[in-house]
Amino acid sequence: MPRKKIALIGGGQIGGVLTQLIAQKELADVVLFDIVADLPQGKTLDIAEASRVDGFDANISGTNTYEDIKDADLVIITAGLPRKPGMSRDDLLVTNAKIMKSVAEAVRTYAPNAISIIISNPLDAMVTLFQKVTGFPHSRVIGQAGVLDSSRFATFIAWELGVSVKDVNAMVLGGHGDTMVPLVRYANVNGIPVMEMLERKYNDAQKAKEVMNKMVERTKMAGGEVVKLLKTGSAFYSPASSAIAMAEAVIKDEKRLLPVCAYLNGEFGVNGYYVGVPAILGEKGVEKVIELSLIDEEKSALDSSVQAVKSLVADMERLGL
Ligand code: APR
After folding, report:
1. How many structural domains compose the chain?
2. Does 198 share its domain with 107?
3. Would you say the C-alpha torsion 222, 226, 227, 229 has a positive or negative sign?
């Protein structure tokens, strides 16, 4: 069977880590595109020269020519500016929308059958724009946010409870912004509710709630916490790993149930917007959105998050982007 081809648009911090992970996992051949001359060529050469020590067979190349992404099976997009300290993701809207438009036109031309995973921020708006410009079926255009936000939430829970993060299941829904919705009630350690474990740990229901609230707030602000420390850009290792989990699900047709930014046709009471929800990912992209029952408090948190997504999309349309 011929190897699959993954095109990465954006050869910055996330693009570099994506390349390395795809190569190390031998997921596919990689073409790394960037507008900066020589940058993707330099990064891919550097990574390829580790192939002997890492023991991977994958053709990886860098390019400044869109034609080279031709017939990619999967495209992962990180083109755009990252945040600097003090910026919200939404502050990137105008600059990144212009970049996303040009990227979408190129992907439409050269990789019309690809499944696309978008990472660029503000995520929910960028996914919406990319789909609109390409006209690709919604199921083939997916945003990466929920896998990362959920991984952050799970990491904080594991640290708090002193358990392996491998046993923690936690999911975050909604938009990729401050209104995201970490689902406390569904968070568990191999099936045991996290709240029950916290209550046992502290022997105090109120204290357990306070500790959980802190983890929820830290999850919502986790991207900003990293930006503040890095000072020159935003998180890149964890967003790359999260997109790779999605790419692997698509390339290997795994049917994984992951929280992703998917287009809703009435699910969760939302019509015509991209929002973070659980979905089955396989070779066709988003193969099914999975609904789950939410209590009033969770529903209203998700509604607020959907409102934030709607107003971001409205801003984009008002600005003619
Ligand atoms: N086409 C292709 N690539 C572009 C374009 C364009 N029109 N404009 C900029 N780029 C490239 C830049 O040259 C840079 O190499 O996008 C790359 C972005 O890389 P970084 O600045 O290192 O940003 P990174 O940390 O990788 O984040 C990328 O993902 O998480 C989001 O908020 C983050 O929007 C940001 C994106």
Report:
1. 2
2. no
3. positive
